[in-house]
Hints:
Layout: H1 5-27, H2 33-42, H3 48-58, H4 64-85, E1 95-96, E2 99-100, H5 102-105, H6 108-127, H7 133-147, H8 152-163, H9 171-181, H10 183-196, H11 201-228, H12 231-234, H13 240-244, H14 249-253, H15 255-272, H16 281-290
Antiparallel strand pairs: 1-2
Helix pairs in contact: 1-3, 1-4, 1-16, 2-6, 3-4, 3-10, 4-6, 4-10, 7-10, 8-9, 10-11, 11-15, 15-16
Amino acid sequence: MADGPADHRAALALDAELARACIESALNGQTDPVADAMRYAVAGGKGLRAVLVMEGALLFGIDRALSAPAAAAIEAVHAYSLVHDDLPSMDDDDLRRGKPAVHREWDEATAVLAGDALQALAFELLCDTVCPDAARLVLVRGLARAAGVDGMVGGQAQDIAAESAAMPLTLDEITRLQAGKTGALICWAATAGAVIAQAPPSRVRALQTYGECLGLAFQIADDILDVEGDAALTGKAVGKDAAAGKATFVSLLGLDPARARAAHLVDTACDALSLFGEEACTLQALARFVISRQN
């Protein structure tokens, strides 16, 4: 697949659609408020993590239909994290993906339950992933760790604590925080296909390097969008970090150096995939898209 904008956007759309279809199938026609809030939460996203799973699996000859449950699992976890992040007790955001946040469309209790249910659904979906039992166990353990206190939740806790800290975080501290809060799920998604295929360690390591660099580049791009993005395009409030006095890659580095760091991370990510040759061009295009996006 060529690496033009239309091609990688088509891959994003296809993979995101397949992941959402898996989630819808798992919901089995339920129409109660929590199930409806779950559907609402997963709708409209870029599907970045799903495409990482599916395109990574394709590198090892694994069809999208076989990797779709794992792709759906990571999208469910990501959606749950956004639902909970938007709550008044967390980031207190009223807008997500251009729509009212779940707690605004329903209420806080429904949002908490929908997030909880999406997290539980993720592990149900992983059990449906077609792969050897040993590989499935690695997927489950890896996602639990990436989503938990050693990953996303731990990073979010550090982020909240930093808001009331006497001193702003340093660049190294921000990097470690975001490697957990944002990067852990992205890294899991990037390596999931290799895990499903029980690929050689060298291939897993290559995709891990790609995922680690991509996760940090993604966060830097988010920090840039918070400074100069358009809320109508981002689908969420902008300027919140500066208003809160939070340390970010932009506040610590400046806009142009932050852009340069993101570009270097993307170059490193793409170089890590060189052993896959042309087969990795979609993943490389996706990395470049991450730092050029408007939302």
